[in-house]
Amino acid sequence: MSLTLYSYWRSSSTWRVRIGLNLKGLAYDLVPVNLLAQEQFGEAHQARNPMSQVPVLEVTEGGHTVRLAQSMAILEWLDERHPDPPLLPADLDGRARVRMLAEHVNSGIQPLQNASVLRMLRERYPGFDKEWVRYWIANGLHALDRAVSEGGAGRFCHGDAPGLADCYLVPQLYAARRFGVDLAPFPTLRRIEEAANALAPFQAAHPDRQPDAPPPGERPR
After folding, report:
1. Does domain 2-84 have CATH number 3.40.50.10380?
2. What are the residue ranges in the chain where pLDDT is below 70?
3. What are the distances in angstroms from CA 10 to CA 2, 60, 168, 176?
């Protein structure tokens, strides 16, 4: 089986998948898609994903190729195809809780900070995009911190091993800092992030370590 990940270095959705692949110990080829250059709208990438987004995971096995889009679908596929180590707990309630925490970011926070949303806001209401993104990220993190803290967090979001929810948390906190959100009110989330970032799979997935990351002085805001 061969795996090819179509990626953009700072895409939080792709970052989640890189973490998942690394936690599973799976080798993969990485193909950059330059979102700033709008390569995602080219015919080649639209053939991979009609939504013109990353990530896309291309799986080739036995002469058969499948293309998977959307980080949640990809990570759940990885967990079913390669169950050890697991991204989801064995018990029903635990799996639901972890999915809930991941979707809190995936559906409740990240879409409101998406580059296409912020670009339209800048065009329609110059300057309002900054107020918008900081408000919605902070609002979402307040709720997420409470959900994680009150629901049985261990060293990580659920228990003492990294899993699906942590794949979503770490990129989201990076984005929060990028947009200038104060993370002091979220001690549980920051503690979990610190534990995750001490692990090699999370370190290797970091945007700064991706082959398409621009030099530090040339990175867009």
Report:
1. no
2. 221
3. 24, 26, 14, 13
